[in-house]
Every structure is written in structure tokens, then in C-alpha cells.
Design goal:
The chain contains eleven helices and eleven strands. By secondary structure, the protein is α/β, with parallel strands linked by helices. The chain has two domains: 182 residues, 3-Layer(aba) Sandwich (Rossmann fold); 112 residues, Rossmann fold (3-Layer(aba) Sandwich), CATH 3.40.50. The mean pLDDT is 96. Bound molecules: 6-O-phosphono-beta-D-fructofuranose.
């Protein structure tokens, strides 16, 4: 049966570029004669029927803003069969034939469950962690990298003046992707990520001692949040090298801000593709960046894919340090 109304929601942690994806979905759908309902607060909003009508005008200019105009949430109730049934009943009651769900793996699991209840679903990857196995890129990653980088460049100035060491925690959940990008871009002395064993002597102290011989007494050590133990790391560095060390947790500042051009363009391409996928009668799909193209994959297959680790970038990060 042809779809007349599309619902769109954002779920999980927000990411810069979500609004650009919402705009692309709304404009593409409306341009093709479909009605769009914005569902607020993720799957919570679906269960509670918390929707607003979105037309082409209501998404004017939102591509410039971080966050999500639809709010976001993590919904426990939707993880239960009762919650999923409620959501599917609401979709039928409101005439929603297809749902575009923007977020990470948890969001796609929800979309998969919903598609089994007879509602067509398409996922769009958006998380600053860039840890979704099925796609090379997730919306928000580039902006978060640049936001973190700007702060780290500032930290470097003051570390240099005081000849100190800065231990900086960046987000990423269990993934070291953000830490690696930011570490390479900032020229960090060491990058500690959960995917690789941490050898403090070899990977941190040794390099700092080598730096001292070359009259370099300030350092940036990037630690992915999945590694943790920042205070212990800082204490050990001070004890092993004698260099005064300070800890900075960049935290949620990394999730905010106006999205970069890369994120706006990726979000727009994915948003258009999501609507076209639903209009083609497909369901249970996730939009992915693959090489230079935007493709769609089966959600179940996508969720079963092993996580990717950027070995070449890791190699590069190891070659360019002291
Ligand atoms: O998934 C995005 C992310 O920012 C992770 O990097 C981080 O671990 C988590 O969300 C933080 O979640 P919350 O906003 O609930 O504290």
C-alpha cells in the first residue's frame, strides 16, 4: 500500500546535523506530496502520540542549528513488546505508513522491532561516535571532531606556556574513533583508545622522555572515554616524568554547535535517500555511507555486521608522534 504520511523522530544522543536530516526528509517528502509528522522525544513520543505537523516552512533554516528540533530521548518502554505494540497501534491510528528514525544502533534496533509490527521503517545514522558498523560515516562526527579540536588547540597554548601535560578525555562511548581523529589532527603525543591495549611505559612515558631530550616539555595525551581512569593516568604521568599534568574532560560540549558543511551535506543526502527508500516500498532499511555513495541496507544485517576499526589511521597516528 502506498504511503501517505511519514513520521520522523530522533532518538539516543543528539548529534550536530540531525536538524539538517529532518529538513531534508520533510522537504523531500512534502515535495512528493506526502504529509510529515514530527514525533517528539524519540520512541517515547511515538508511544504517546506526541506529534507535530511539519511542512516545508517549519524546517526553514534549521540546517544551521545543532541539537534536534524534535528533542530526543532513550525509551525503556519501547524495548518491551507492549511498548512496540502501542507504537504500532498509534502509527495505524494516525495513518503513519513509514517512519524515519535518526540515531545510532539502539535507534535502528527500535526501527527493526517496529517494522516487524507492520510499519515501514528506515534508519539514518547520526552519532558523534561514528561507531555504527554498517556505515563509514555517521552524522555529527565531523562537527564533534572540529569542536574537540578547537578546545585542544587552546589547551595546547596554555600547556606550552607552563610546560605541562594535558590529559584530555574525548567522548566516543566504547569506540576510539573520535579520539583517534582528534588525536591525529591535534598532533597528540599519545592517543589511548579502548580498541588497543594501553602500555603506559611505552606509549606515554617513553615518548615524553624522548620529547624532553628534544627540549619539548608540553604534551597532549588524548584519552577515549572508553579507556577511562583519567586521574590515575595523570598521576602516573607526573610520577614517571615529573611533568606537571592537568586533566580536562571535554564532555557534552562536543555534541553541540552548528554542524559543519560535511555534516550538513551528509545529513541532506541521507535524508533524501531515506524518503526515496520508503517511497520505493522498502522497509527495515538503514541508510549508509559506502565509499562515496549513499546506499541502503537491511537493518538486521546491518546490526549483525562486525564493528570496523580504522587500522590505517591508527598506524598513521603511531608514525607521526615523537
Ligand atoms: O553516543 C553519543 C555519546 O555522546 C557518547 O559519546 C557518550 O558516551 C554518551 O553519548 C553520553 O550520553 P549522555 O548524553 O546520556 O550522557
Amino acid at each position: 500500500m502506498a504511503i501517505n504520511t511519514i513520521g520522523i523522530l530522533t532518538s539516543g544522543g543528539d548529534a550536530p546535523g540531525m536538524n539538517a536530516a529532518i529538513r531534508a526528509v520533510v522537504r523531500t517528502a512534502v515535495g512528493n506530496g506526502l504529509q510529515v509528522l514530527g514525533i517528539r522525544r524519540g520512541y517515547n513520543g511515538l508511544i504517546n502520540g506526541d506529534t507535530i505537523v511539519l511542512d516545508a516552512r517549519s524546517v526553514d533554516g534549521i540546517q544551521t542549528r545543532g541539537g534536534t528540533m524534535l528533542y530526543t530521548a532513550r525509551c525503556q518502554e519501547f524495548a518491551t513488546p507492549e511498548g512496540q505494540k502501542k507504537a504500532a497501534d498509534i502509527c495505524r491510528y494516525m495513518g503513519i505508513g513509514g517512519i524515519v528514525a535518526i540515531g545510532g544502533d539502539g535507534t535502528f534496533r527500535g526501527a527493526f522491532d517496529l517494522s516487524r509490527s507492520g510499519v515501514c521503517t528506515v534508519g539514518i545514522p547520526a552519532t558523534i561516535d561514528n561507531d555504527i558498523a554498517c556505515t563509514r560515516y555517521s552524522i555529527g562526527f565531523d562537527t564533534a571532531c572540529n569542536t574537540a579540536l578547537e578546545s585542544i588547540d587552546r589547551l595546547r597554548d596554555t600547556m606550552q606556556s607552563h610546560e605541562r601535560c594535558s590529559v584530555v578525555e574525548v567522548m566516543g562511548n566504547k569506540s576510539g574513533a573520535l579520539a583517534m581523529y582528534v588525536g591525529v589532527a591535534s598532533g597528540a603525543t599519545s592517543i589511548l583508545i579502548p580498541e588497543k591495549p594501553v602500555d603506559m611505559e611505552k606509549d606515554v612515558f617513553e615518548r615524553m622522555r624522548r620529547g624532553r631530550i628534544q627540549h619539548r616539555n608540553h604534551h597532549i595525551i588524548i584519552v577515549a572515554e572508553g579507556v577511562g581512569g583519567l586521574d590515575t593516568i595523570a598521576k602516573e604521568i607526573h610520577e614517571a616524568t615529573g611533568i606537571e599534568t592537568r586533566v580536562t574532560v571535554l564532555g557534552h560540549v562536543q555534541r553541540g554547535g552548528s554542524p559543519s558543511a560535511r555534516d550538513r551535506v551528509a545529513a541532506t543526502r541521507m535524508g533524501v535517500r531515506a524518503v526515496e527508500t520508503l517511497m520505493a516500498g522498502k522497509t527495515n532499511r538503514v541508510i549508509c555511507a559506502h565509499n562515496n555513495a549513499i546506499i541502503d541496507r537491511d537493518i538486521e544485517e546491518a546490526l549483525a555486521m562486525p564493528s570496523q576499526f580504522h587500522e590505517e589511521l591508527y598506524h598513521v597516528s603511531q608514525m607521526t608522534i615523537l
